[in-house]
Fold:
Amino acid sequence: MSSTNYLITIFRFTVLVLVQVLLCNKIGFLGFINPMIYILFIYWYPIKQNRAVFLLISFLLGFTIDIFSDTLAFHSAATITIAFLRPTIMRFCFGVNFEFQSFKINTVPWIQKITFLGLLIFIHHTVFFTLEVFSFDNFLLILKKIVLVILASLLLCTLFSSLFSIKKE
Amino acid sequence: MQQIINFIFRNKILLLYLFLLLIAMGFTIQSHSYHQSKFFNSANWISGGIYKTSNNISDYFNLEIENEKLVQENIRLKNLLYNRAYKEEQVIDTLLLDTTNLDYTIVAAKIIKNSYSLLDNYITLNKGAKHGIKQDMGVITPNGILGIIENTSNKFSRVQSILNRRSNLNAKLKNTENFGSLIWNGKDYNTVQLIDIPRRIPLKVGDTILTGAASSIFPENIPIGSIKKIDLDVSKSSYSLDIQLFNDMTNIKNVYIINNKNRTELEQLEAKNSNVQY
Structure:
């Protein structure tokens, strides 16, 4: 990774944490819908990198958000899960060609991008709300939260990712 | 040996993932079973500081509404004060106000982080140990109760909101001494549940619920809410009531922290009873 890439990653980390904590956690649409847009960090993170470092950074990201929102440590668990599963999901969405050197995420069709983002959000939210409720007595409550928050997160993440997409090089 | 090392190298990502997951699950289980960790919460100086800065900015947008609320409360209190003087006709100069003998002291604070959409909600305030705030002090708003101080740092403190599944307060019906436990089922942030009120007591929708006398944290008779729906619990021997809160939990700014000076004494007295309600 070149030094500009480091800077971009640090910048993204900070901005996404602040936006999540200061804006998105306060939306409270219908009382409980707070979209989680920091998942974009996992979505944007460069592909050809050391996976161990990626996992550690994801843990740090989740943990920072946990500290801010007093939800120790649901965000961390959910974030490292999608960080760990990311290569599998990418192979599922983009086929084998994502392993080639020339692969860039902004060159694939938008439907594949949405599928990728949607799967990340789905797994993340399932882990998150299961941990939050922590009992299957309230299964309907988990289901309701998962479905509605996924829709909100997906909408916002798609908007943000198209707003701040990396220019084609 | 060689094979073990090979195995570790081959699966190092999986092992790292499992290790991190273990840490996260450890924190999760800890947070579900007892008060959250002393250091990793939003009352520490970094997150508290950031919330405070953000709050300094957003405060201005609500100044008018907040002023209006405070004026309303002042009007109510002044009403009480003046009417009382006329009614009881006490001779003022014989009434000594010795501050060392007061039962409760009150500190005003502001909410810098509110939360109501989770199942276990915590609120962060801008007053901390430096201002004399300690664990287990009660927090009220002009309209009702908010929660109990759970953790303090030097400048900030964290409140376990009544919108928390671990919250369990003593509450009673207005004009009676029948009390029950106030809990929250996590479903609606405007409604809490009052359980353990015996069935033989006549109730109506709209009756007022107050804080009870058994609490060593809150003074008696602080309004909480009114009965919205009357149900019986599983055993059919006591009520399970839905209480509509007087507070709008989504829109609170100024709160008061109540310190009961006699609390330690009370607790020592009740120490033998293992099932003390807050």
Q: What stands out?
A: The longest helix of chain B spans residues 63-88. Chain B has one domain: 36-260.
